Amino acid sequence: MNTFKHLLTTAMIAASIASFAQSTTITVTTDSTSTTRVTRTRNYARVTSDFGIYVGLNNFGGSLPASYELSPIGSRFVALSWQKRIPIAVNGATKLRLITGPEVAWNNFMFEDRNTLVLQNGQVAIEPANVDLHRSKLVTTQLNLPLMVNLSFKSGFNWSLGAYAGMRLDSYTKVKPEGGASVRNHNSYNLNPIRWGLTTELGFRGTSKLFFRYEPNSPFRAGQGPDTSVWAVGIKL
C-alpha cells in the first residue's frame, strides 16, 4: 500500500508541475521514509534584437507620362533597420513571432535622359535640362515602423508578412551635368508627410532574405503630383 501511495503521489506531482512559472523542486517523504525529488525547469523564449540592411531597386507603378520614366538600375532602395523579434508561439515545430522596430529608408528615383523634377505653380512637373546630365534623381528619406508576423518552420525557412508606416524626414533633387558639379535642392516636392505600404520577406534562418514592398497610394499629395504607386524589391542582409 505504501508503494502504491508513493507512486500515486509522484504521478500527481509530475502532472501538476507544468503550471509552475519557474524552476521548482519538490521533495515527498512517504511512510516508508523513501524520498522522491522532482525538478522541472521551464524555458522561456526571449525577445531578440536584429539589425538589418535592405538593398534593392525601386520604381513607380501604374500609368505615368513618359517623362517620369526611371532608370531601372539607378533607382535604388536602401534601409537600415533595428528590429525586435517578439515570440508569440514558439514551442512547436512552427514558430510564430512578431517583428517590429524603427528603420530609416531611402528611395532614390533616378530619371532617364535630361529629365529633372521641378515645382511649377505648386505642381510637381518634369522639365528637360538644357545640357546632358550624368544624374538626375529625387531622393526621399523616411522613418518607418514596420509590423510583421513571422513564421519559422522546422526546415529553417522563414516567411514574414505585414505592413509599415512612416514619416518623411527629408527629400531633395540632385542634378549633375556631364562634367559639372552636382546641385542639390531640398524641398518637400508635394510629397505626403506620411506614407504606408505592405511588405513581405522570405528566406532561410541565418541567411540573407528576399523582400518586396508595395505602396498602393501615391507618394505625392493628391492633385499636386503624379498618381502612382511605389514598389521595391531586393535583399535583406
Task: Chart the SSEs and their pairings.
Layout: H1 2-16, E1 24-29, E2 35-40, E3 48-61, E4 76-89, E5 95-100, E6 103-110, E7 115-120, E8 123-128, E9 133-152, E10 157-177, E11 183-186, E12 194-204, E13 209-215, E14 229-236
Antiparallel strand pairs: 1-2, 3-4, 3-14, 4-5, 4-6, 5-9, 6-9, 7-8, 9-10, 10-11, 10-12, 12-13, 13-14
Keywords: Signal
InterPro entries: Beta-barrel_OMP_2
Signal peptide: 1-21
Description:
The protein is mainly beta and 237 residues long. It has two domains: 2-40, no CATH class; 48-236, Porin (Beta Barrel), CATH 2.40.160. 6% of the residues lie in helices and 58% in strands. The protein has one helix spanning 2-16, and strands at 24-29, 35-40, 48-61, 76-89, 95-100, 103-110, 115-120, 123-128, 133-152, 157-177, 183-186, 194-204, 209-215, 229-236. β7 and β8 (123-128) form a beta hairpin. The chain starts with a helix and ends with a strand. This is Outer membrane beta-barrel protein. InterPro entries: Beta-barrel_OMP_2 (IPR025665). Residues 1-21 form the signal peptide. It holds the Pfam family OMP_b-brl_2.
